[in-house]
Amino acid sequence: MQRLYTDYIHQRFFMSSLKAFRSSFLDFIADPFYVSELESVRYIPDGLLVLEDGKIKEIGTYDSLQHKYKEISITAYPGMLIMPGFIDTHVHFPQLEMIASYGEQLLTWLNKYTFPTEGKFKDKTYAQKVAAIFLDELLKNGTTTALVFATVHPESVDAFFEEANRRHLRTIAGKVMMDRNAPDFLTDTAETSYQETKALIQKWHKKDRLLYAVTPRFAITSTNEQLQIAGRLLQEFPDVYLHTHISENVDEVAFVKQLFPESQGYLDVYDRAGLVGDRSVFAHGVHLTDAEFHRLSQANAAIAFCPTSNLFLGSGLFRIETAKSKDYPVKVGLGTDVGGGTSVSLLQTANEAYKIAQLRQQKLSPFQTLFLATLGGAKALNLEAKIGNFNPGKEADFVVLDPRATPLMAFRNSDATPTSLEELAERIFTLVIMGDDRAIHATYIMGGLVMGNG
Ligand code: GUN
Ligand code: ZN
């Protein structure tokens, strides 16, 4: 049984002290889409991870480090694999309760299921309850950082950030801006969205580990005036993020063309408003043109690849090999996109990413999928200086994975701890394809245990 350690919320659990963990460790020190596995994968079959004040002090083989840390108690996880916490680069916390809504594609799905659900988040108490459930669900699934849509209501953002802060999470979120093509109970105006967003940035951005994203929903639900206002906010607050959707669904792309006839294409709508920069994260991008990929590359903007959502809503198959081309590299992370997505688990999301590549006659290696879920996500969010791998100085958010979490996984993984990269690739591929929240043995935030099995 998974257990959430709610007492950590009040504990000064990451305060100064040395801590060490002994297990197998896997992280990435470079991008396996561009360099070999030997150069990008750091694997230590019997390692020691040493933390100080919730940050990584050092990592190495147990044999090489243990003599230096004789005095401190060591937590051992034999048979497990420790990785950096997973990073979800696109998800909607208010949509958790409408996950698995039947039968529609994007635009009908939004009107039929999403908008009525999001209407409930005007009530802060309700929003707080769902935010708590959502964040605990993330932690149970090994997700330690997420880029999150709230709703149009500032109350939903306050509720979310309060709960995230209680859990000491590094997380990014924002109030949705939408001033047309949505029900009245869910729209703001260009002016109110400016005032409310500005106030929320001043209240939350850089408070502890929290960061703010200016969040126009997508081009269909914002007037050009509101998109320009979003651009103005980015100019006034240059270190906040821009988070929106792009080119997810064929009917959506056609509607955007109709709404913005003067634009060269979907990305150009955002570009003209000053929304395409190196802190911009665009969810989906299934129907982007080559020219649009080039522009994203040039701007150093990121795409959140949301495979379970793209399949569930029948949106299409993302061209990962185009995004990760050597000539025009685009930063890519994985997004669950719950509730358009069907799982909170980044393992399950990586699983579907692999299958989408298969359907396109492409291969995503086991290492590539887990890179996207960790360091790749950190790079997409410009957070690689703080999270994403076990380099010294980074914040110690990590997951303990159990390769034998279910009887079938135990049967499949009955061999001993992998000693080569080939053996490791096979082992982690079973985690990606068969794993879900049951494979998350424990989750640590800033070196403190927040969720554990058993
Ligand atoms: N495009 C605009 N809003 C949404 C949303 O809530 N979910 C998804 N998947 N796409 C969107
Ligand atoms: Zn979305």
Automatic annotation (TrEMBL):
Protein's GO biological process: guanine catabolic process
Gene3D superfamilies per the UniProt record, alphabetical: Metal-dependent hydrolases (3.20.20.140), Urease, subunit C, domain 1 (2.30.40.10)
Pathway membership, UniProt: Purine metabolism; guanine degradation; xanthine from guanine: step 1/1
Pfam family membership, one: Amidohydro_1
GO CC annotation: cytosol
Enzyme class: hydrolase
Similarity-based family: Belongs to the metallo-dependent hydrolases superfamily. ATZ/TRZ family.
Protein name, as recorded: Guanine deaminase
Source species of the chain: Chroococcidiopsis thermalis (strain PCC 7203)
The organism's taxonomic lineage, starting at the top: Bacteria, Bacillati, Cyanobacteriota, Cyanophyceae, Chroococcidiopsidales
